[in-house]
Amino acid sequence: MPLATIHGTQINYRFDGPGDGPVVLFSNSLASNLTMWDLQIAALTERGYRVLRYDSRGHGQSAVAEGPYSIAMLTSDVVRLMDAFGLHKVHFCGLSLGGMVGQMLGAMHGDRLISLTLCSTTAYMALKESWDERIESAQKNGMRAAVEATVDRWLTKASQERLPDEVEKIGHMIINTAVDGYCASGIATQTMDLRETIRTISVPTLVLVGEHDPSTPVAAAEFIHEGITSSELHIIPDAAHVLDIEQDRKFNEVFLEFLNRNIE
Length: 264
Description:
Layout (H helix, E strand, L loop, with lengths): L2 E4 L2 E8 L6 E5 L10 H8 L4 E5 L16 H14 L5 E6 L1 H12 L4 E7 L8 H14 L5 H8 L2 H6 L1 H12 L3 H13 L13 E6 L7 H10 L3 E6 L6 H4 L1 H14 L3
Parallel strand pairs: 3-4, 3-5, 5-6, 6-7, 7-8
Antiparallel strand pairs: 1-2, 2-4
Helix pairs in contact: 2-3, 4-8, 5-7
């Protein structure tokens, strides 16, 4: 379990693939960890990409730094992680919370990106009161109580039946997320507003969304696409929130095609 000291906290990370390949940097969603990208690794490394994954602060094997967190703080973590490994530019891909980080990264540090992929995310969280309820529930009942509702948001019912092993894995990720890390990151999600920020992004951007995503719906992806003139939008059929898991083959196909068109 390699750890990097970033911003006064410890961040867990993992490299895969050839040492001299262009780097794809993945950022995980709330209540998950770097293993959420397992189904992308072989597809990328077999084509010469080097993959860097990390657990967002308060998640996985990273330390649970005192909260609350902000999207600016989580974005700074990414820049400092890149600096720690001497990575001048990367292809960045983030999902949900990771996609919010990606939006700010693209706006504020576009010179550090070859390309940007924003998955299952939004520029603004309208139903802020729902986050008060989620945070209160986690503090009172723990993360185990959040598993069923979260899985229902993340995967369609058909995929829950089709992918029992992935459902079990997702449940473990949620349960093993520290309550304090979840709540601190939940506040970052609740308070962010990137609606104007994204208009300054000029790096080539891929916006991906699941056809049936109830958390960050197609309309949210369309708003991001409209706000980023250098973006393209793809809607993944038969997918909800974690489309990289639910429809991994289609995700990998679209993602790799985009990466291969944006080689520096």
